[in-house]
Design goal:
This protein is α+β, with helices and mostly antiparallel strands. The protein has 4 domains: about 1-40, no CATH class; about 45-140, Immunoglobulin-like; about 160-255, no CATH class; about 260-370, no CATH class. The protein has 5 helices and 23 strands. The strands form 6 sheets. The chain has a 5-stranded mixed β-sheet, covered by helices on one side. Strands 17-16-15-14-18 form a 5-stranded antiparallel β-sheet, with no helix packed on it. A hairpin with a 5-residue loop joins strand 16 (about 280-285) and strand 17. The longest helix has 20 residues, at about 165-185. The radius of gyration is 38 Å and the shape is elongated. It starts with about 35 loop residues before the first helix and ends in an 11-residue tail after the last strand.
């Protein structure tokens, strides 16, 4: 542009500026003088207001087309971020500097005072705008499902020929909660436990998805033993016509559990069960030797239960006869009886925990002594 050009709007002179390069589009307002150019110039393009959708239950924020857990104590930072994303700065501005000053009007309203500065046509321009931000409290999809009792799978914790112990039921729930928490920590908002119900036969855990229900069931079996069966039930069809199933995962814990005393009926004496993971493992009460059921027998070998460590009683040691025999007082008759001395019995022991059953009187390991009655 030559120095002799005049503004078509006001007739004033137009400062000389570099002509566009070959092939570069000519700016429409380049013919205007600075005064006329800046009359219609907006350094910042700002919305009249911004609405931040917040879940009143869990605090998640709706961003884009989904709910996001932001972990914010208040929503000022969220408001600043969304205002910053919504503001537009003129493409011709250079060396842009800006700042946002929030003003909390009330619980649900924040005013964002935004100041922008930049160089346009060689001169520094500054502009301030105020954008009100409304915090709209709603209910996210996840909390709505939880409130509505939604679930896609049930994990039923049962046991073979018995009722699960309180410790087993409590541990099963802990396993489920830990699994779901892991999924939540990865950002999976579909992960939740809807309800935990205690029944006469065991515990039912309602879980948000079939995949997570299966994962919980497998973890319970991995730690507590047993096996799991799946029972799908058709409940509806989705919008695409696909069948939607609700799956019941029936966890069946082993017949025996850690702390049980069983007689494998192999003429080698009773066994205190230590583990039922994979196959039954324990310790012989007659010798102190380790016992492990054959792989074919698994976690429930052919055995009869004699009692549990909870049935044991602390009794007095009369004398240790030799490495194979010990004399103790019968906890019921108080008669002296000579019984097998397993290797875990200390020669200097004054008392020992014993279990009396139809198989006789047997000494239990010391680590169950704190659980028995005096």
């Amino acid at each position: 542009m030559s120095s002799g050009d005049f503004c078509p709007r006001c007739g004033g002179p137009v400062p000389e500026r570099s002509a566009p390069l070959p092939g570069e589009p000519r700016e429409r307002d380049a013919v205007l003088c600075d005064d006329c150019y800046f009359e219609d110039f907006d350094l910042v393009d700002a919305p009249e207001r911004i609405e931040v959708r917040v879940c009143s239950q869990c605090g998640a924020v709706y961003e884009g087309n989904r709910w996001v857990d932001v972990g914010a104590r208040d929503y000022t930072d969220v408001a600043v971020e969304q205002v910053s994303e919504a503001l537009g700065v003129h493409v011709k501005a250079e060396d842009v500097r800006w700042g946002v000053e929030p003003e909390q009007v009330d619980e649900n309203t924040i005013r964002m005072h935004c100041t922008f500065g930049g160089v346009v046509r060689g001169s520094y321009r500054e502009e301030s705008v105020t954008v009100p931000v409304l915090i709209s409290r709603q209910t996210c999809d996840r909390c709505g499902r939880i409130a509505g009792g939604y679930y896609a799978s049930i994990v039923q914790v049962r046991a073979d020929e018995r009722t699960p112990t309180p410790d087993e039921e409590a541990r099963a729930v802990e396993i489920a909660e830990a699994y779901i928490q892991e999924r939540e920590d990865t950002g999976d908002r579909n992960a939740f436990i809807t309800e935990v119900t205690e029944t006469d036969d065991g515990t039912d855990i309602k879980i948000s998805t079939n995949q997570m229900g299966g994962g919980v069931a497998k973890r319970i079996v991995r730690e507590l033993g047993g096996h799991v069966n799946e029972y799908p039930t058709l409940v509806t069809e989705d919008s695409d016509g696909n069948e939607v199933y609700r799956v019941t995962y029936a966890v069946r814990l082993p017949k025996f559990t850690a702390g049980d005393v069983v007689d494998p009926d192999d003429d080698d004496g009773p066994v205190l069960v230590r583990s039922v993971r994979g196959n039954l493992k324990g310790v012989r009460l007659t010798t102190g030797e380790q016992y492990e059921a054959d792989f074919e027998e698994g976690e429930t070998p052919d055995a009869r239960q004699l009692g549990t460590t909870a049935d044991a009683t602390e009794t007095t040691v009369v004398t240790v006869e030799d490495e194979y025999a010990i004399q103790v007082l019968d906890p019921e008759t108080y008669e002296s009886k000579t019984i097998a001395r397993p290797s875990y019995v200390d020669a200097d022991a004054e008392t020992v925990p014993v279990l009396k059953s139809r198989a006789g009187l047997h000494v239990l390991p010391d680590d169950v002594g704190s659980d028995v009655d005096d």
